[in-house]
Amino acid sequence: MQSLPIPPDHSAPISSSNGNIDTRQAHIRHITAADSTQRLPHWPQRLRAYLPGLMLANCLALAAMWIARHPWLQAHGLGTLTLALALGLLAGPLLGRFDAATQEGLGFSKQILLRLGIVLYGLRLTLQDIGSIGWQGVLFDAIMLGSTFMLAWILGTRLFNLDERTSMLIGAGSSICGAAAVIATAPVLQARPAQVTVAISTVVLFGTLALFLYPQLYQLNLRYMLFDWSAGWFGLFTGATIHEVAQVVAAGQSIGEEAAYLAVVSKMVRVMMLAPFLIGLSFYVARVLSPRTSDAAHTLGRIVIPWFAFGFLLAAGLNSWLPMPVVVLQGAHQLDTFCLAAAMAALGCTTRLSVIRQAGWHPILLAALLFGWLVGGGMLVGNVLVD
C-alpha cells in the first residue's frame, strides 16, 4: 500500500540548505545591527555630558575677558589667562555635588579648546616681524630660550629634586611665553593638572615682578648712566626675558613707543619658537623620558606629535602671506583668547589650592633662580649681541 505524502510542518525549523543559510544570515544581521547600535555615538548624550563643564569654563572665560579690560589690570600686565586661572581656582572648591557632572566638559576645554587656541595664536604673528629685529634679535631670543629651559631642567631635577615634568613646565613658561607655553607643553609631557598649576603660579609671580622691576631699571640707568641702553635695546631685552605677552606689552609701554614695539616683536619671535620646541620635546619624551618612568599613565616609547604646533606655524604663515581683513584678524584674536581662557579656567576648576601648598618652596626657588638669569644673563647676552 502506497503511503500518502505528509504535509510540511511550517512550525518546524527549515532544514534545507537554503533555509539554513537564510536563518544564519538573519541571525547575523540581528547581531550586527545590535553591535552597530552599541557602537554608534550617542551625540545627544555626549553633548549633555559635555554641556555643564563647557558652560562653566566658557562663563569663567567670558568673565575673565571682561574683568581684564579694567585699566588698572591692563596697566599692571594682569591678562585674561591669569584671571581665568584664578577664577577657576576659586570656582573649583565651590562645585560640590556638581563636580562629577562638569568633568567631561572641563576635560574637553583643557584639551580641544586649548589646542584650538594655540593654533589661532599663530595669527598674531607674521614672519616679516623677524626682519624688524634682525638676526641679532633672533639669536638673542634663541639663546635666552635655550639657556633658561636647560637651567630649569638641570637645577630643578638635581638641585631641588623636582620631577622632570614639573621642571620642564617651569622652564617652558619662563623661557617662552608664560602660561600659554605651560599649557601648550603640558599635553606633550602628559603632565598632571597639579604640575601645570604649580608651573603657571611661578610664571605669574615672577612675570608680575618683572613688570614692575624693568621700568625701574631703565629709569635708574637713565639717571646714573651705568650702561649704554637705548630705548630700542631695552625693548629687545624686555621681549626676550619677560614671561607673559601681556606683561611685555605693559612694561614696554611704560618705557616708550619704540621700546614697546620692539619688545612685542621680540616676544612674538620667542612665541614663534614654541612650535619647534614642542616638536623636539616630543621626541625626547618618547625616546628618553617615558621609557624611564614607571608611571603607567604615560605612553612608553611612542612619539606624540603635537599637531597643533604645525597648525600654529601654518596660521603664522597664512597671516604672513595671505592678506586678511582687520575684522577677521580681530575676531580670530578674540576667539583665540576665549579658547585659551576657557582652557585655563578648566585647569583651575580641576586643581585644588592644596596641591600648590604641597609642592612646597622648591618650584618657587627654581623660578626665582630662572628669573635672576633672565634679568642678569639677559643683560649680559644682550650687551654682547645687540649694539
User: Kindly, what is the distance between the CA atoms of the first and last residues, rounded to a whole number of angstroms?
Assistant: 124 Å
Order of helices and strands: HHHHHHHHHHHHHHHHH
The overall average pLDDT, rounded, is: 82
What is the C-alpha radius of gyration, as a whole number of Å? Answer: 28 Å
Shape by Cα distribution:
globular
Structural summary, described in words:
By secondary structure, the protein is mainly α. The protein is 78% helix and 0% strand. The chain is built from 17 helices and no strands. It has helices at residues 17-39, 43-67, 71-75, 80-91, 99-121, 129-159, 164-177, 179-189, 193-224, 231-241, 245-255, 257-272, 274-292, 307-321, 326-349, 353-359, 362-385. It is globular. The termini are far apart.
